[in-house]
Design goal:
0% strand; mainly alpha; 91 residues
Length: 91
Amino acid sequence: MATHQHATSGNAWHLLPAEHRAAHLIDITHAYLDLGDVRSAGRALVAADRIATWETRIRPVARAALTAVFRAGPTAADVTRLAATMRLTPQ
């Protein structure tokens, strides 16, 4: 997590293409879930969606990560909204 925080806090982070930043945030979701930090996992996915909506919504790994976050327990409203937008919640 320290490496992730260091990598995303510098100016170089914003120089990466949006798709790469979103992919990283989607991937880091699994680390947050492994640590039991569902809230940070959800925030990472919402941030990825804001950075590169298309990347987040079409990648199967992003859909799987969001499903895992949603199933892990209560989620913030923005995570629930993202899951509903991606049709990952019961209708």
